[in-house]
């Protein structure tokens, strides 16, 4: 990457050669109002993803138990 002496530096004073930190902060600052709305709507949503996660974990445990039973049986 080319050296850019005019690129902003982070709060620690460390130069970010790729500029990814500055781009990320600009992205987060730009989308702040929408992010708050999304957080508010996701907090009111039912626990569907949590139920799916629990079902997935139970399914993995059942499959591992079946494999162990077949291997040791």
Could you please describe the fold and organization of this structure?
There is one protein chain. The chain is mostly helical and 73 residues long. It is built from 3 helices and no strands. The termini are far apart. The mean pLDDT is 73.
Keywords:
single chain, elongated, mainly alpha, 73 residues, 3 helices
Distance between the termini: 59 Å
Tally of separate helices: 3
- How does the overall form come out from the CA principal axes? elongated
**Percent helix among the residues?**
55-70%
Strand content: under 5%
The average pLDDT is 73
Quick recap:
The chain is mostly helical.
What are the SSEs and their pairings?
Elements (H helix, E strand, L loop, with lengths): L19 H11 L1 H13 L3 H25 L1
């Amino acid at each position: 990457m080319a050296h850019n002496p005019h690129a902003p530096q982070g709060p620690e004073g460390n130069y970010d050669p790729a500029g990814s930190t500055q781009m990320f902060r600009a992205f987060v600052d730009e989308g702040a109002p929408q992010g708050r709305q999304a957080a508010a709507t996701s907090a009111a949503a039912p626990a569907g993803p949590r139920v799916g996660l629990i079902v997935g974990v139970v399914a993995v445990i059942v499959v591992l138990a079946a494999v162990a039973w077949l291997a040791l049986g």
